[in-house]
Structure formats: C-alpha cells, structure tokens
C-alpha cells in the first residue's frame, strides 16, 4: 500500500495564515504579501500558466481546508455571474483601481502631502484603528504602504471566506484577481 506523502507545497496554507497573524502584531510584515503578487506573475510569465494558483496558493489551500476538512462550506455551485468574464475582469479592474489608490496614498505620505494613517480599511469601507504598532523605525511611507497592502490582503481573505461559506471551498479562486491576471498572461503568451 502506497502512503500519501505530504510535500512542502501542501502546507502553504500555514504561510497564508501566519502572514495574517503577523500583520496583527506588526503591520510591517504586510510587505511580505508582495510575494503573493509577484510569484504568480513571474511563474505565469515564465510559462508556468496557473501553476501557482493550482499548486502553491496558500489562500486557496486555506479555503479548501476550512471548507472541506472543517465542513464550513455549503458546497453549492458558484453562481454563473461570478464565473462570467465580465465579472472577473470587472473585479480585476476594481481591485487594481483600489491597489493604485493605495499606491497613490503611499506616494502622498512619501511626498509629505499627507500624514500616515494608522488604519486598516476592511472591504474598502470600514476603517479599523491600528495604532498599537510602533512604526517609528521606518519611514512613514513604508508604514503607509504596509497599512494599505494589509487592508487589501485582509479584504480579499474576507471575500474568500464568505464565498467559501456560501458556495464551494475554493469559489474565491474563480474570481481571484491574481488568478485572472495569470490566466490573461497565459492566454496572451500562448496565443500565437
């Protein structure tokens, strides 16, 4: 009988969960989240397609674990509109707009036109004060980026958990902006 050997890639969900917890204690750990943006793009551009999404994505693994192993998912099919191109591309556009607004706010702090805002913005609407963290050891713009980026990561995690509960465990993966970008890269790369 063959044993089911676990590999490092099977435990990427631990990194995802650790990232979220580290940000609570020191917002500067939010910078590590850039790896979740850059690695999938690099793999896709290098010809790996959606390998990151299908094999290494810690968030997808975490949602699958919560939904399947912990039975938190209703296991319903995701609605057709969430799978549609217009929704996925629209959500990607919205998500990237929020990302560029976050970058602009970081620039304003960098240029001195604005002060550091020690808040986490959940679902792009609800502001939670996050002023227990000492960020005096870095420039204000470095901290501002961390607050903004952590806000994006927490918001996307919340959306993932909500869709995991309502539908199938990895429903978030259907409209995940990184998944949509890697898919677009793959389509452009192999469209010859």
Automatic annotation (TrEMBL):
Keywords: 4Fe-4S, Electron transport, Iron, Iron-sulfur, Membrane, Metal-binding, Transmembrane, Transmembrane helix, Transport
Domain 4Fe-4S ferredoxin-type intervals: 29-71, 155-187
InterPro entries xref list: 4Fe4S_Fe-S-bd, Electron_Trans/Redox
Domain of life of the native organism: Bacteria
Protein's recorded name: 4Fe-4S binding protein
Chain ranges passing through the membrane: 12-43, 86-110, 149-167
Native species: Paeniclostridium hominis
